[in-house]
Amino acid sequence: GESVGLHLPTLSVQEGDNSIINCAYSNSASDYFIWYKQESGKGPQFIIDIRSNMDKRQGQRVTVLLNKTVKHLSLQIAATQPGDSAVYFCAENMNTGFQKLVFGTGTRLLVSP
Amino acid sequence: EAGVAQSPRYKIIEKRQSVAFWCNPISGHATLYWYQQILGQGPKLLIQFQNNGVVDDSQLPKDRFSAERLKGVDSTLKIQPAKLEDSAVYLCASSSYRGNSYEQYFGPGTRLTVT
To answer: Partner of B106 for a Cys bridge, out of A13, A19, A43, A80, CB 3.0 to 4.6 A?
Structure first.
């Protein structure tokens, strides 16, 4: 219900710190994983993706790590900035023959100056 | 390129009324998705179209929700009659296959409040 929405896991960091956001996924057959950033009042925005045959992928200031043994995904943001404040979702592609994304519940990142 | 367009941005209706949302995907994107996002949760797929055909509607409450994508471009999602638990943001996304990934682009969403 509505009360669940008010209790998103929250990560609070200082500007310049590195942030690590974690996600557990459910399907060991998932072949593709994506991290999305969602700012208030906007749709999710693609950040970075990784295929299941990789364990690490780097982008600009972001790194995604995949541990298939424990079905865990993490997003590392280097030198976090106030503009990084948002809700972050991981999504897994269920590998059903066409793309079907299942989203996690999200983590709110708060960056203070 | 222009993004995914949705309208209206906000809608308030009473329970048992009907409502419709419109989506215009990115030009050339064959795949279109409708998601429901309840406050504080991740988006949940309602229906997926490939061109004008339905690929997956397994999580669409078909007794009250319907969607169509005539001509394989724009799409509408309808709720009739609405219930209080339908209050959510309805997101439209579109994608095309590029390289070896299907990056989905999301619209801004329509926030529905059912009173």
So the answer is: A43
High-pLDDT (> 70) share of chain B, %: 95
Minimal Cβ distance to A89: which of B31, B42, B109: B42
Cβ-based contacts of B50 with chain A (< 8 Å)? 98
Q: Residue B95 and residue A99: Cβ atoms within 8 Å?
A: yes
CA separation, residue A91 to residues A72, A76, B86, B96, B107 (Å): 12, 16, 23, 17, 17
Q: Which residues of A touch B (CB under 8 A)?
A: 2, 4-8, 32, 34, 41-46, 49, 51, 89, 91, 93, 96, 98-106
| Residue pair A83/A34 in contact by the 8 Å Cβ criterion | no
Locate the chain A residue with the closest alpha carbon to B85. A1
Rounded mean pLDDT, A21-26: 93
Residue A104 tokens read as: 């996690």
